[in-house]
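Question (not urgent): is this output format expected?
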Amino acid sequence: MQAHGLHEYNVLDYFSQSQFYDTSCINEQIKMQARFNLLEANLLDHTKMVGFEYDLWYFTYQPSYFIIRKHQRYSPQKTELVAIYYIVEGTIYQSPSLSTLLTNRVLTSTFFLTKAFEVGKDNSRFHPVQGYRWVTDEPAIQESRKELVERADQGFTTTTFSIEF
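Got this back:
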């Protein structure tokens, strides 16, 4: 494979060397039957077999990108998608499930919402007469304004020119 690289005809063989490959799958059974019976693997009908099966779903060469599906075959017409794997430039990755992606997004957004509410709670005050008010740290704001003005003054020095007639 190093001499010719990955292509659509050898990518499943390359994938079969990975940790994600199930050696009890239909692909492996067909490979073993074709090896010892001198049959062509493509002449065997895999749709009548039951079990896990891997197939190449999509590929492109520039960049080298392949998508492999793992599905459970129950009958010739009924299959259920179990997992999706992708190969990018020779490295195999397992695609996360939709529930994992949604869980991660929800947890991330709730974390940042919680932080925002904490900041709001820490900076708000309640007075029975005035109601709620937002507390700002006036001395710190004045100090940062002073620093900005000083930086601006240092960055913009003026040069005077005298023109004589």
